[in-house]
Structures are given as structure tokens and as C-alpha cells.
Amino acid sequence: MNHDEIRRIHGEALALFGTRVHAVRDDQWDAPTPCTDWPVRALVNHLTAEQLWVPRLVRDGAAITDVGADYDGEVLGDDPAAAWDRAAVAAVAAFAERGTLDRPVQLSYGAVPAAGYCTQMTADAVVHTWDLSRAIGADERLPGPLATAALREVEPYAPGLAASGLFAPAVEAPADADDLTRLLCLLGRQP
């Protein structure tokens, strides 16, 4: 994908997650999600905190150690949807700045081009949109281009994900599975 496509897909993924965040009812914030350790609020908090990192790492050139524990713990406050919106807008804006996708970003495992970081963030948003959709009873179907982009991102390193302990073991996808189903199965989800 070229840089414009990377930015567009990223923005679409965050916008879609945002529609799900705004659909969470007051009685659903403690509901379980497919991420067994994260109820709805924790899942939204996780993705919101990830977006808060983006301007610091991408625009400001900070390293993980510079940011430290700034976004550990609760970042949603009294209005989770507004907290998400602010973080998502800032992340999209940081990736949109001229030249940012060519810059190196210092992540926990080393330096990567910001374009690669952006595609990782996109894949995470796509998967967690499905998780949140399932948790709140929203439409679990996601746009094909988002699923395809996330699958392309995850496939190369999928075998190591279960070994990391952060993901359940992969589930075998049906032979006729679409890209979303293949993505979810790679990440140990039961579509």
C-alpha cells in the first residue's frame, strides 16, 4: 500500500471503532469481550491508550522509554467516548503530517518505519472493532478492505502471536473463509 492508502485505511479503522464506542450502552461497560482479560471498558481503554502514544512516537520522535508509564492505567475518565474521540483524532492527525510515515518510530522491539507502525495500529483497531461489536451486540461484519488490510499485516507474524501469550492459539478457518474470518481465526477468535 502507498502512504495515502495506509492513512486512509487507518482513519477508516479508527472511525469504525469509534462508532462502536459510541454505541456502548451504560450497562455494557463491564460486559465481557472475546479478549478474556478485558471487559468492554478495558478494551476501549487499551485502544484509547494506544492512540495516545501515536503523537508522541510519530510526531515528537519520542522513544518508549521517554513516554514511560504516561498512559498506563485508566485513560477514559468520566466520558469514554469523548476520550476515545480525542485520542483517535490526535493519532490520525499525527500520521497525516507530511513525511511522518517515512520516519523511524522506536517501539519496544526496535525501530520501525512509521508506515509499519500505522499498519499495525490499523490491524489492532480492526480486530478490536470486531471484539467490541461482539461484546455489545453490534454488527460484527466489517468492511472487506479493512479486514484484508489487517489480514495482510498479521499473516507474516501470526505464528508467533500465540507463543507470545497475548493471543489464543489460532483456530482453523473454513476453506471458503473470507478475510475477516481468516484474520479472526489466526488470532484465536471464534467467529
Structure description:
- The chain is mainly alpha-helical.
- It has one domain (3-141): Four Helix Bundle (Hemerythrin (Met), subunit A), CATH 1.20.120.
- It contains eight helices and two strands.
- A two-stranded antiparallel ribbon has the order 1-2.
- β1 (104-107) and β2 (110-113) form a beta hairpin.
- α1 (3-23) runs parallel beside α5 (114-136).
CATH class: Mainly Alpha
Distance between the termini: 27 Å
Q: Give the strand line-up of the largest sheet.
A: 1-2
Strand content: under 5%
Task: Give the full name of the CATH homologous superfamily.
Answer: dinb family like domain
Shape, per Cα inertia axes: globular
Q: How many H/I helices?
A: 8
The biggest sheet amounts to: 2 strands, antiparallel
Cα-based radius of gyration, to the nearest Å: 16 Å
CATH fold assignment: Four Helix Bundle (Hemerythrin (Met), subunit A)
Helix amount, in percent?
55-70%
Number of strands: 2
Average pLDDT for all residues:
94
> Runs with pLDDT <50, length 5+?
none
**Secondary-structure element order, as H and E?**
HHHHEEHHHH
